[in-house]
Write a structure and sequence with these properties.
The complex is a heterotrimer of chains A (333), B (336) and C (311). Chain A has 333 residues and is α/β, with parallel strands linked by helices. Chain A is built from 12 helices and 13 strands. Chain B is mostly helical and 336 residues long. Chain B has a single domain, classed as MetI-like fold (Orthogonal Bundle). Chain B has 14 helices and no strands. Chain B has helices at 2-28, 34-39, 46-56, 62-74, 88-123, 128-142, 145-159, 182-189, 194-229, 232-239, 244-282, 287-296, 300-328, 330-335. The chains are: A alpha/beta (333), B mainly alpha (336), C mainly alpha (311). Chain B binds chain C through residues 14-15, 18-19, 22-23, 26-27, 29-31, 138-139, 141-148, 150-151, 153-154, 158, 165, 269-270, 272-274, 276-277, 280-281, 291-292, 295, 303, 307, 310-311, 314-315, 318, and chain C through 147-148, 150-152, 154-159, 162-164, 166-167, 169, 239, 243, 246-247, 250-251, 253, 263, 266, 269-270, 273-274, 277, 280-281, 283-284, 287-288, 291-292, 295-296. Chain A: Residues 4-254 form the ABC transporter domain. Chain A: Its main location: membrane.
């Protein structure tokens, strides 16, 4: 049984009659020791879906799902108190901007010890020792002196390590990392990802890695989900997705990687922008930007279906040669 | 920290000099011959006039008069009242505790009602409780303080008879002041009922005086809290699985109160201005009433000394607030 | 595979088609501000109330049933019309010397509005000029002006107003001047801060290169960009001016009797706390409502003009 099971998760905002679906019937699962990468542009709903898992979506957002279970327990119907016991202890999350993730009024040790106090108890001495341990684990040099530092005295990379230490303090079984390296310098990014992967391996955690960076996810993830405008477009094992993408969007994303533009004059891009709240297309959400779109795509919305073992949401999934299947000849551009 | 303190003092000292200058010349501009005021109704003949002039230094050029005055100020001598002939500084020190007691109560009222109201409004943003508390706040600082005081008296003292109308203590009690704070002195005196009398006399003036600061603090707390609640570290705190109460009271409030402290400090000036009106209405024997009476009686040394002392108190309070701000906000502490 | 719909005769869609229709020309700033302002119910109510008060102020002479200073010796301290012992001619009752309260309140509106507006205009003009000069020329002028403003701000406003009135003597005009002086530092500071932040902007430098003189730079180029916070402060200044004038009137140092200034009315009414509640309640209520309306409007303006709030 999967550690985290998400079936048809939908998160809506706005009025009841004209809601904005930030997340639209998305399903995925994460197992122990597995790294799932969720990839998408901003506005794809990837962050919102993980916030829903953590229970951090506030009124007026509405969260519905066929199933949202952690270790077999239903997160949606769980009493709030019980859910808070799981949050931060069994499921932990780290966010994008480490510089603003720490409370400026409290020291580093105070914030880490707080997580320990709330979930594990123990006396101050024990907690302090454990905090020192954690700081060592995340690779902070000279942790003793850093303990009494205030957040504004730390650099970006250091702050993110502290945030990670805080998150793994109670040995979570699932760690959700929402764009953990986006706000950091390139040189630090690799270090942080390596740290996350090492921690994941050592403790056999499930890791949900959310990012817009395909390159990142290619190295780190076992499986990948591609999201767009709140919908799941493609999901499958990382290797196969990179070797043979089935969704035109995935294909375009891969082509947009600088490495794949070798030999071309210009970098390839995906024209247009992700639809916002007020300009959702009636048909397939990608249709205005998709190079293969025909009139069917503009009129109707595809459902997720299985294509040779891969989940794809497209009327005309791509074959091994990268061409759409099922289209009448002469229809494509 | 020490460097911070010296820098602030470096700002304040010239300002204080400026205030002495301003006050000195302001008072000099008041029409009317001070010597005649001093002499009173009996009037004075030419010889006595010259005597008085020399005695008070009015025959010196104005610059010299100013420097004499300045020297006096630094020695703690603010001159003598024209009316009572007693040193101004003594009268100030005798009456000041009454105003301090009232102002202190007013601030406590303002903070202990204002901050919770602001927090309530922030966590229930957009709902009825938010609108209600903000309406109360808005009404609070749109009200003329003297009218509010009169209404309170009308309702609670005259109609309901729950509270007394004026003064600090019922005339039944008499004891020597020890600290000047009626609440403390009445307890020390051991007389039965004195303390509750002191308390009941304090209630209405405190409410009247503290309402405007309360309204401002409530509003400020709300907006500060809203800003803090939108911060990333609050979301992180919730992701840690902390109870909502803890998130708000420990994480959010600590940060939200930082700017509110500055506001509280600024309210001291408002309180002292309001004290003038409140003390007049409640016949509260503090420096507000003292200054008004001095103005009505053209008692220049008192007016001058009183205003100077008030300016001094306000500036000291601002300094304390600045230092407190440095203590409470770690970012400032380390930068400076 | 997936559901199929019958293909229509329309041609195949292309890459990168425009998803959103282009909108018309964006609304002018005034229109936009008004649109935001209108949605704020409190602010809008404030505006309506102010409109009503302005109406009273302008038409006082014709609307008020009686002469505000005429005394009716047969009708001392008559209660309002819905109470026992009332005189039906005097809807809100009469005061201690038989003057109709309603008429006095209406004329009081005229007084308060003129006080508020006059004080703010005077103070703002002086404040803008001073602040402009200080912020633009910087150097010792700035230091001197700002130091003076600091000194003025170190005294509580009411106390300074009292001191100035003590010099000039009690009376309405002197009270207004005193309040205008007391409000001055706020406008100076605001203007100077705005000017200093605008000075580094490129349009100013461009203008300078094009040869604009100082006066033009200050008042034609820079000033319009600083107006938003000044307008908000001005509106709120009207409400504090009204409150301060009433306070001075109450202390006997502002408008002198028999002028029907609301604060002055309250000073005459003090002794009737136990006996004639209407003489106390109504004038204060008028002050409250007027000040509230201006505060609401000021807040609404601040929200409407604040670029951060604009979605």
């Amino acid at each position: 049984m999967a550690l985290l099971e998400v079936k048809n998760l939908t998160v809506e905002f706005g009025s009841e009659d004209k809601p904005f679906r930030a997340v639209d019937s998305v399903s995925y699962s994460v197992d122990r020791g597995e790294v799932l990468g969720i990839v998408g542009e901003s506005g794809s709903g990837k962050s919102v879906s993980s916030l829903a898992v953590m229970g951090l979506i506030d009124f007026p957002g509405r969260v519905t799902a066929d199933a949202l279970t952690f270790d077999g327990q239903d997160l949606l119907t769980m009493p709030a108190k019980r859910r808070r016991q799981i949050t931060g202890k069994d499921i932990a999350m780290i966010f994008q901007d480490p510089m603003s993730a720490l409370n400026p009024c409290f020291t580093v040790e105070a914030q880490i010890m707080e997580a320990l106090k709330v979930h594990e108890g123990g006396n101050k001495k024990q907690r302090r020792e454990r905090t020192l341990d954690l700081l060592n684990q995340v690779g902070i040099p000279d942790p003793k002196s850093r303990m009494t530092a205030y957040p504004h005295q730390l650099s970006g990379g250091m702050s993110q390590r502290i945030v990670i230490a805080m998150a793994i303090a109670c040995n979570p079984r699932l760690l959700i990392a929402d764009e953990p390296t986006t706000a950091l310098d390139v040189t630090i990014q690799a270090q942080i990802i390596d740290l996350l992967l090492k921690l994941q391996e050592d403790s056999d955690m499930g890791l949900l890695l959310i990012t817009h960076d395909l390159a990142l996810v290619s190295e780190a993830a076992n499986r990948i989900q591609v999201m767009y405008a709140g919908q799941l477009f493609e999901s499958g094992p990382a290797d196969s997705i990179f070797a043979a993408p089935r969704h035109p969007y995935t294909q375009a994303l891969l082509e947009a990687l600088p490495e794949r533009s070798e030999g071309h004059d210009r970098l390839r891009t995906i024209p247009g922008v992700v639809p916002g709240q007020y300009d959702r297309p009636a048909g397939c959400l990608l249709a205005p930007r998709c190079r293969y779109a025909n009139e069917n795509c503009v009129k109707a919305r595809p459902e997720v279906s299985d294509f040779n073992g891969r989940d794809v949401r497209c009327f005309y999934p791509l074959n091994d040669q990268g061409q759409p299947t099922g289209m009448a000849t002469g229809e494509t551009v | 920290m020490l460097g911070f303190l010296f820098r602030r003092l470096g700002d304040i000292i010239p300002t204080f000099f400026g205030v002495t200058l301003l006050v000195f010349f302001l008072i000099r501009l008041i029409p009317g011959d001070p010597i005649l005021m001093l002499a009173g109704e009996r009037g004075v003949d030419a010889e006595r006039y010259a005597e008085l002039q020399a005695q008070y230094g009015f025959d010196q050029p104005i610059i010299v008069q100013y420097f004499d005055y300045l020297v006096g100020v630094f020695q703690g001598d603010l001159g003598k009242s024209f009316v009572t002939k007693k040193p101004v500084i003594d009268e100030f020190l005798t009456l000041f505790p009454a105003t301090v007691e009232l102002a202190l109560m007013g601030i406590l009222f303002a903070v202990f009602i204002g901050v919770p109201l602001g927090v309530l409004a922030a966590i229930n943003r957009g709902k009825w409780i938010d609108h209600l508390t903000m309406s109360i706040s808005l009404t609070g600082y749109s009200m003329p303080i003297f009218w509010w005081a009169l209404l309170l008296i009308m309702f609670f003292s005259t109609t309901l008879g729950w509270t007394p109308v004026s003064g600090r203590l019922s005339v039944m009690y008499f004891f020597e002041p020890v600290t000047g704070f009626m609440l403390i002195d009445s307890l020390l005196s051991g007389e039965k009922g004195a303390f509750s009398s002191a308390v009941s006399h304090l209630i209405l003036p405190t409410i009247a005086l503290g309402t405007i600061p309360m309204a401002v603090i409530a509003r400020m707390t709300r907006s500060s809290m809203l800003e803090v609640l939108g911060e990333e570290y609050i979301r992180v705190a919730r992701a840690k699985g902390l109870a909502p109460f803890r998130v708000i009271m420990v994480h959010a409030l600590r940060n939200a109160l930082i700017p509110v402290i500055t506001v509280i400090g600024l309210q001291v000036g408002v309180l002292l201005g309001g004290a003038i009106l409140t003390e007049t209405i409640f016949s509260w024997p503090g420096i507000g009433k003292w200054i008004i009476e001095a103005m009505n009686r053209r008692d220049y040394p008192t007016i001058q000394g009183g205003i100077l002392m008030i300016a001094f108190v306000v500036m000291t309070m601002n300094l304390i607030v600045d230092l407190l701000y440095g203590v409470v906000n770690p970012r400032i502490r380390h930068k400076r | 595979m997936t559901e199929n719909t019958t293909p229509s005769a329309a041609p195949a869609s292309n890459v990168a088609q425009e998803v959103v229709e282009p909108v018309g020309a964006p609304p002018s700033p005034l229109r936009e501000t008004w649109a935001y302002f209108k949605t704020n119910r409190g602010a809008f109510t404030g505006l309506i109330v102010i409109g009503f008060i302005l109406f009273l102020a302008l038409t006082a002479h014709w609307i008020a049933p009686f002469d505000p200073i005429a005394q009716d010796r047969t009708a001392f301290l008559k209660p309002p019309i819905w109470m026992e012992g009332a005189d039906p001619r005097y809807i809100l009752g009469t005061d201690a010397v038989g003057r109709d309260i309603l008429s006095r309140l209406i004329h009081g509106a005229q007084l308060s509005v003129s006080i508020g507006v006059a004080v703010v205009i005077l103070s703002m003009i002086a404040g803008i000029v001073l602040g402009m000069v200080a912020g633009y020329f910087r150097g010792w002028i700035e230091v001197a002006v700002m130091r003076l403003m600091d000194i003025m701000l170190s005294l509580p406003s009411l106390i300074m107003a009292l001191a100035i009135v003590a010099i000039l003597g009690p009376g309405l005009e002197n009270a207004m001047l005193a309040i205008a002086i007391v409000q001055l530092p706020h406008y100076v500071r605001l203007t100077r801060a705005s000017v200093v932040s605008e000075l580094n902007k490129e349009y100013v430098i461009a203008s300078q290169i094009a040869g604009a003189g100082h006066v033009r730079q200050m008042f034609v180029n820079i000033l319009p960009n600083c107006m938003a916070p000044l307008i908000v402060q001005g509106t709120l200044g009207i409400s504090s001016a009204i409150l301060d004038a009433a306070a001075l009137g109450f202390l006997g140092l502002g408008a002198q009797p028999p002028l029907p200034e609301w604060g002055t009315m309250l000073s005459e009414a003090r002794e009737f706390v136990g006996s004639a509640w209407w003489v106390i309640t109504f004038p204060g209520l008028c002050i409250l409502v007027t000040v509230l309306a201006f505060n609401l409007m000021g807040d609404g303006l601040r929200d409407a003009l604040d670029p951060k709030m604009k979605r």
